[in-house]
Amino acid sequence: MTAISFQKVSFSYGEGNFSMKNFDLNVEEGEFLAVLGHNGSGKSTLARLMNGLLLPDKGTVEVFGVPLTEKNLYDVRRRVGVVFQNPDNQTVSSIVEDDVAFGAENIGLPREEIGKRISFALKAVGMEGERTATVSRLSGGQKQRVAIAGVLALKPDVLVLDESTAMLDPRGRHEIMDVVCDLNRREHITVVLITHFMEEALLSDRAIVMNRGEIVMEGKPADIFERHEELLTYNLTLPRIGEICKRLQAGGMSVPDTLDAATLADAIEREWNR
Ligand SMILES: Nc1ncnc2c1ncn2[C@@H]1O[C@H](COP(=O)(O)OP(=O)(O)OP(=O)(O)O)[C@@H](O)[C@H]1O
Ligand SMILES: [Mg+2]
Predict the structure, then answer these.
(1) Which of 83, 93, 114, 194 lies at a 20 to 30 A Cα distance from 101?
(2) What is the pLDDT of residues 25-37, one digit of tens each?
(3) What pLDDT score does 129 carry?
(4) Ligand 2 ion: Cβ-proximal residues, 5 Å cutoff
(5) What is the whole-number distance in angstroms between the Cα of residue 45 and the centre of ligand 1?
(6) Atom 26, ligand 1: which residue's CA is nearest?
(7) Which residues contact residue 96 at a Cβ distance below 8 angstroms, ignoring those fewer than 6 apart?
(8) pTM, whole model, 2 decimals?
(9) What is the four-CA torsion angle of 196, 191, 216, 210, rounded to 10 degrees?
(10) Which of 17, 23, 36, 82 has most ligand 1 atoms within 8 Å of CB, for mutation?
(11) Which ligand 1 atom minimizes the distance to the CA of 163?
(12) 70-96, pLDDT tens digit by residue?
């Protein structure tokens, strides 16, 4: 089944401002989709259209076959959870479990069910040991995991992460990506990952590149990264390892374009032994 479907969606922030026209996109159930694109290309706008924070001017956004309207926003937001960039703006309570419970309490779930969902959500993000911890004392990565847990407590079918690792250090980013991959594989949650870290896109099933409100590239992440010149025209780069290959080649070393560390290491070793 298609989880989220954009059908000829047009949207603008008003005359002369950013706009999307006749935008089509299907995100399949269980898929892990990465969304890439330079600043201002429309990625966050896309995220907001996915859960009804914005509504199209024309066309339809369907969530599991149901067209999103003002009337069913509430239901859609339970199915499509969005995690944003800054964990500090997403914290509502000082204690971890209260923070995670907030959304679930707001939809009026019974106490016992809320307790269960807090346990499930904290376990899913590897934070069950911090249930009664103070949020402000946590690391950035931990705070962001708590934010994800708050969304998970609503048992969404789709998790949209809008540059949710952007403010984290490499370790925090790894923590989040581990959690996200796990949720996709084990809990079968459909994932839309908006990111400017090319490494993260490599973990996805499919990636799209946005430019000025349009999808300009689409495919398996490894295939997209093969189109290096084209990526550059959209102000995007390769994952770090791809950049390293290019530098080695520029330095006269005969290594292939690869995004696999072991393949690159083998090629370097062969060159060395020549
Ligand atoms: N509320 C708004 N009113 C007017 N213009 C807006 C509004 N929000 C965003 N824009 C503009 O729409 C364009 C797309 O913004 P959007 O936030 O979707 O881009 P993005 O790809 O998420 O960028 P970034 O990588 O910086 O997060 C930008 O030019 C932005 O300035
Ligand atoms: Mg954005």
Answers:
(1) 194
(2) 999 999 999 999 9
(3) 95
(4) 43-44
(5) 6
(6) 39
(7) 122, 127, 130, 131, 132, 133, 134, 135, 138, 146
(8) 0.91
(9) -40
(10) 17
(11) 27
(12) 999 988 988 999 998 887 777 888 999
